[in-house]
Structures are given as structure tokens and as C-alpha cells.
Specification:
- By secondary structure, the protein is of the alpha/beta class.
- It has one domain: Rossmann fold (3-Layer(aba) Sandwich).
- 36% of the residues lie in helices and 19% in strands.
- It has seven helices and eight strands.
- The chain has a six-stranded mixed β-sheet, sandwiched between helices. Strands 5-6 form a two-stranded antiparallel sheet.
- It is globular.
């Protein structure tokens, strides 16, 4: 049995410490508009840089099976959705569509972490529903380490719609890097007639 360590800083004896919780706290002016290298054609909003406790928690969920860290990460997304609804940038009814995860990665991780984050984040929000409607096609490479152009080539045409989605949609992801996945997700959803109003991410690189 492994000793309990904070998923953000590694301090012993606690799964998520108060200092890391403060680092993840959504400020009154967040999320912020960011500009990825590949423009998906809709606003891209992020809760912070992909660094520090935020980065370590995301990696721990995806690569180390730290399901306990879904709670603070989903809590941050929940607050971000609250803020956007309060500001009038989002409106209900609204469908939250998780960005797709490669099937091999989802199997390795015991499920799709982005979908689990989205489902927890909408709890208590009336008028918000989650539709895991996007899927990566088989043999899509992992994009880690690829350049912006290579990411775009890797993902182009590799996302497919599994369930029709109508009305207003926000795409939710853990990290926006070059914007390739966000752009292709938005394109696929718009092709089916969805009104994609924004992309919302826990972090941006």
C-alpha cells in the first residue's frame, strides 16, 4: 500500500493539501480568454497555465489513476461554469461535450477522465447536460511531443461524432496545448449543426 501524498505538491499524509487547493481556486475574474496557435473559431477559456499543482494534478489523474483528484479539478470547472453563466457568456440549456480521448488511453486510465470531470462539474447546475459525443478514431497517435503542425495533421479527420448534438454547446478539455483537438472538435460539432459557443479548459500550455 502506497503512502498518501498530495497530488499537487507531494506532501505526505493528505491527498490534496490546502496550499494546492488555493492554487486551484478560481478567482472572480477567471476563466480567462486565451489564444491557442490553432484558432477553433470560438472563444477558448482557461483557468490557468499548465504548471504547478494544476499540471501535477491533471497528470496524476490521467497517468497515475488518482481518481481522488477528480473532485478538486471538477470543482474548479464547476465554479468556472458558474462564473460564465453569471457573466452571461453562457446560457442554459447548454450541452457540455468532453473533448475526445484516445480509446487505448481511456482503457489504460480506467475510463475517460475528461468525461468524468465534466459529469462532476455539471452536478447542481440546472440546464446543463453532458454528452460524450466525440470519439477519436482508431490509430490516432498520442500528441505529446508533436509540433503544432504535426498535431494538426495527426488530429485532422480523426475525431468522429458518436451521438447527434443540437443547440448550444461548450467543449470541455483538461488542457489546451496547440488548439488542434479543440479546433477539430468544434469543426465536427458544427458540421452536425451544433452551436458551439466556447471551449473551456482546466489549463493551457
Amino acid at each position: 500500500m502506497l503512502p498518501l501524498q498530495c497530488g499537487g505538491c507531494g506532501v505526505a499524509g493528505v491527498g490534496w493539501c490546502a496550499a494546492c487547493d488555493r492554487e486551484l481556486t478560481v478567482r472572480p475574474d477567471q476563466p480567462h480568454l486565451v489564444t491557442p496557435r490553432l484558432d477553433p473559431g470560438v472563444p477558448v477559456l482557461s483557468l490557468g497555465r499548465y504548471a504547478g499543482a494544476r499540471r501535477k494534478a491533471v497528470v496524476a489523474v490521467k497517468e497515475r489513476g488518482r481518481a481522488d483528484l477528480l473532485e478538486p479539478l471538477a470543482g474548479a470547472l464547476h465554479t468556472a461554469l458558474d462564473q460564465l453563466l453569471t457573466w452571461g457568456l453562457l446560457d442554459t440549456p447548454l450541452t457540455v461535450v468532453p473533448a475526445p480521448t484516445r480509446r487505448s488511453a481511456a482503457r489504460r486510465r480506467g475510463g475517460d477522465p475528461v468525461t468524468r470531470l465534466a459529469r462532476r462539474a455539471v452536478q447542481g447546475h440546472h440546464g446543463l447536460t453532458v454528452a460524450p459525443a466525440l470519439r477519436m478514431k482508431a490509430f490516432t497517435r498520442d500528441s505529446v511531443g508533436l509540433s503544432s503542425a504535426a498535431r494538426q495533421r495527426n488530429i485532422a479527420g480523426r475525431i468522429r461524432l458518436t451521438t447527434p448534438v443540437a443547440g448550444s454547446v461548450v467543449v470541455v478539455d483538461d488542457v489546451v496545448t496547440t488548439g488542434a483537438t479543440a479546433a477539430e472538435s468544434v469543426r465536427v460539432l458544427q458540421t452536425c449543426g451544433a452551436d458551439v459557443v466556447a471551449v473551456l479548459a482546466l489549463a493551457h500550455a
